Amino acid sequence: MHPYELSVTEASERIAAGELSPVELVDSVLDRIEKVEDRLNAFVTVTGDQARAEAVRAEQELAAGRRRGPLHGIPVGIKDLYDTAGVATTSSSRVRADHVPEADAGTVRLLREAGAVMVGKTHTHEFAYGAVTPTTRNPWDIRRIPGGSSGGTGAAVAAGECLAGLGSDTGGSIRIPAALCGVVGLKPTYGRVSRRGVASLSWSLDHVGPLARTVRDAGLVLDAIAGYDRADPASIDLPVPDSTAELDRGVEGLTLGVPANFYFDDVQPEVERVVREAIAVLEGLGADLREVQLPLADRYLAVEFGVLVPEASSYHQQMLRAKADLYEPDVRTYLEAGELVLATDYLKALRARTLVQQAWRDVYESNHLDAIVAPTVSATAIDAGQAGITWPDGREEDTTVAYARLCCPGNLTGLPALSVPCGFDGAGLPIGLQVIGRPFAEPTVLRIGRAYEEAGGWAGRMPPL
User: Fold this and answer.
1) Residue 28 is among the residues annotated as catalytic for this protein
2) Among the options 28, 91, 173, 313, which is catalytic?
3) 28, 79, 92, 378: which is the annotated catalytic residue?
4) Where in the chain are the domains?
């Protein structure tokens, strides 16, 4: 096994035992980037020299007995929405091609303090406004998309170009690429992780979080970046539990909701089959399954876009007037359309979101649920350049809508949501199981994901590049 194939947990244990050096690990990852990046294009910028210098520093600190924690010496990729001091942060856009921040985003600073080594900035769908990441390809089939908007991070983690990475999620943009690239993606509870220094798409829906190869790895990254930040108005001042302390307790005694509506409507048959098999595995491990009806399900997408579109246009208003011709056509269209949304309609969307949040809370309380389990996305990865998905009845669904549809409730409610690999379709493309938990119950969400991961046997598989 090459060092780049290791999970964060495995690499961390070997580093702690003196069996692997951070320099050796980082060199392995950088060599991997050199070999596969021409086919994937997951990175906007590769910071090889800086990464090697940080790896040397980590090795020296470890030799002196100053281990910072499990991420010390671990190579990570950072989505290009995150500010990185002295390294360009372009949001994969010509609009910000010359933007070089003076300070790190809050989460990047915390990763550095934990000893993680940044190997580069990963591509996003321009300003995170889409579910495709058109610059990047899927490592399971380079003719296909990796998903978006954190597609660069998802592809890089899956292909061994980093051991873990950071993404952002406004309508599914951590979970979508996690599902399509066969890795783990965690959207924490709204307010659990600081968004300071991360370019916004929709400030009241934006979340940031990790992508990794295993559930435990995602928990280790979450523990490093979670916590209160007074510089983020949405940040919640609550204690942060150890996400991995009870990871191996299993699911016996937990009650899991299985949606009777919405989540299995308009999904590919193979996706439904594989996800239902995964849910049956959880039942076999001792979970109590309970069928639940999700209220207001026909409103989720309308409310999601009713909030997202005007908030995004507000954020981009000045840049759009100064540099409209530098935006990609799809993003510019969305931004210009957002300026036509009436304030009254935006306020209605905000009120409707409150109703959705209350309705979901009632579902959890009345059914005594620990989590809801469902598909992450409705379809596996489509071909690059494909305009949308055609369903058996002939209906065409826009790509972004098709992939965001099953993820957006997690953004509207702000609940923690995890995508875990649960199998493949007939073409060898990954499928994701989604676990949506109670507020700030990331340890339980990860515990459920870990129980399935251990039983399912899909974790950490490398694509055949």
Assistant:
1) no
2) 173
3) 79
4) 3-252+452-456, 255-397
190/388 Cα distance (integer angstroms): 30
Specify whether 79 is catalytic: yes
* Given 149, 168, 200, 378, the catalytic residue: 149
Note if 366 is an active site residue. Answer: no
Would you give per-residue pLDDT tens digits along the chain (465 residues)? 899 999 999 999 999 999 999 999 999 999 999 999 999 999 999 999 999 999 999 999 999 999 999 999 999 999 999 999 999 999 999 999 999 999 999 999 999 999 999 999 999 999 999 999 999 999 999 999 999 999 999 999 999 999 999 999 999 999 999 999 999 999 999 999 999 999 999 999 999 999 999 999 999 999 999 999 999 999 999 999 999 999 999 999 999 999 999 999 999 999 999 999 999 999 999 999 999 999 999 999 999 999 999 999 999 999 999 999 999 999 999 999 999 999 999 999 999 999 999 999 999 999 999 999 999 999 999 999 998 999 988 899 999 999 999 999 999 999 999 999 999 999 999 999 999 999 999 999 999 999 999 999 998 899 988
| Distance (Å, whole) CA 409 – CA 56 | 43
Rg (CA), the chain: 20
**CATH superfamily entry for domain 3-252+452-456:** Amidase signature (AS) domain (3.90.1300.10)
Closest CA to 49 of 62, 32, 30, 35: 30
Considering only CA atoms, which of 20, 95, 18, 270 is closest in space to residue 7?
20
